[in-house]
Design brief:
The structure holds two protein chains of two kinds. By secondary structure, chain A is an all-beta fold. In chain A, about 0% of the residues lie in helices and about 60% in strands. Chain B starts with a strand and ends with a strand. The chains are: A mainly beta, B mainly beta.
Chain lengths: ~110, ~110
């Protein structure tokens, strides 16, 4: 069966510090991978998605970047965090042609102080 | 530009009655629609979906209706139970093209015992 792991679960970082959130998927090959953010009182905003290794599409211009160094690994990064980067970050995967839905990790609560 | 809209931020329903959650979309390229349920500090879990070639899909107490001409879908929960209390997100996907999942802002459902 397929599983998705996302860590850490919570993170408190000072303004100006770097960020690295990691997500890995098991039990599937060549999944589509996604990073979403849920800001306080808002919906799920698509930040990045990837259909293959090294292929990253950015949806919203911002202070963040994403990378996919391996087939089932997706990393969300920032060189210098801003207060506005605080939020709940979610990684997700889908397997087109097999499952039409996307499956989510448990999320990371990021607080920038 | 909000491509998927949930205009009701909250809904309260008495236990045993029907809950109806609504969603509107603007992009005619969307060909798959999904509903997710989300508890605080957790990732969304997939609930039910519908392909654009159908107008209704039923799974136990949950039914999703799609009106393509109106670009509108709804989720019916009957009978509603206290455990259904959560935030419900509508999402739309282009399964034949970009494979992106675009989410609405969510509706907080509270089922009163």
């Amino acid at each position: 069966s397929q599983t998705i792991h996302q860590w850490p679960a919570t993170l408190v970082q000072p303004v100006g510090s770097p960020l690295s959130l990691e997500c890995t998927v098991e039990g599937t090959s060549n999944p589509n991978l996604y990073w979403y953010r849920q800001a306080a009182g808002r919906g799920l905003q698509l930040l990045f998605y990837s259909v293959g290794i090294g292929q990253i599409s950015s949806e919203v211009p911002q202070n963040l970047s994403a990378s996919r160094p391996q087939d089932r690994q997706f990393i969300l990064s920032s060189k210098k965090l801003l207060l506005s980067d605080s939020g709940f970050y979610l990684c997700a995967w889908s397997e087109p042609g097999r499952f039409p839905e996307a499956f989510f990790g448990q999320g990371t609560r990021l607080t920038v102080v | 530009d909000q491509q998927v809209k949930q205009n009701s931020p909250s809904l309260s329903v008495q236990e045993g009655r029907i809950s109806i959650l609504n969603c509107d979309y603007t992009n005619s390229m969307f060909d798959y629609f999904l509903w997710y349920k989300k508890y605080p500090a957790e990732g969304p879990t997939f609930l039910i979906s519908i392909s654009s070639i159908k107008d209704k899909n039923e799974d136990g107490r949950f039914t999703v209706f799609l009106n393509k001409s109106a670009k509108h879908l709804s989720l019916h929960i009957v009978p509603s139970q206290p455990g259904d209390s959560a935030v419900y997100f509508c999402a739309a996907s282009d399964q034949s093209g970009t494979y992106k999942y675009i989410f609405g802002t969510g509706t907080r459902l509270k089922v009163l015992a």
